[in-house]
């Protein structure tokens, strides 16, 4: 499914398509980028293993995580695993490029993935982050869901590899994207 626009307007349908594909393929894990946790909540009951990947602490404001403690507790109470950690396709490398200028390999990789859409880049990133954290099994296809701004508009079937082997990550299918 290819959307004619980006953004939250496609969240409900993206959740539906991703959930249906997980069921069709027998995929047990869905990893979803969710800043507020609301999108992750939509996946409750849609797969055995739901992982919510938030923005890193200080993403918007120093010392602040955009996922409220209350929403984090709601997700955990619904058996959603919540991951808040360094973004694998930016992190320290972006700090170096901001300080010294230039572009570095991981930023080039992120830019290349954005050629397929911001949601594809985010989907790859959160899948690798979840694998690095041990929240999804190694060597299995999962569904990864990301977006452009608020909500989600992209879902992929992906077999991520660890960040140390990120170029071995395999995108098997794009379920939907702008």
TrEMBL record:
UniProt name for this protein: Pyruvate kinase C-terminal domain-containing protein
Record-annotated Pyruvate kinase C-terminal domain positions = 12-157
Note the Gene3D superfamilies from the entry: Pyruvate kinase, C-terminal domain
State the organism named in the record. Answer: Pelosinus baikalensis
């Amino acid at each position: 499914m290819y959307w004619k626009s980006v953004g939250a307007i496609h969240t409900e349908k993206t959740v539906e398509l991703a959930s249906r594909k997980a069921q069709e393929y027998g995929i047990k894990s869905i990893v979803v980028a969710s800043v507020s946790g609301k999108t992750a909540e939509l996946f409750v009951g849609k797969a055995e293993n739901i992982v919510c990947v938030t923005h890193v602490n200080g993403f918007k404001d120093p010392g602040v995580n955009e996922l409220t403690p209350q929403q984090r507790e709601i997700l955990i109470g619904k058996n959603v695993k919540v991951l808040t950690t360094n973004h694998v396709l930016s992190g320290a490398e972006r700090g170096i490029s901001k300080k010294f200028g230039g572009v570095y390999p991981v930023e080039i990789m992120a830019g290349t993935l954005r050629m397929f859409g911001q949601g594809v880049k985010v989907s790859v990133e959160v899948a690798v982050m979840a694998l690095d954290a041990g929240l999804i099994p190694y060597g299995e296809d999962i569904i990864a869901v990301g977006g452009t701004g608020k909500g989600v508009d992209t879902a992929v079937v992906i077999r991520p590899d660890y960040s140390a082997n990120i170029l071995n990550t395999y995108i098997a299918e794009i379920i939907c994207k702008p």
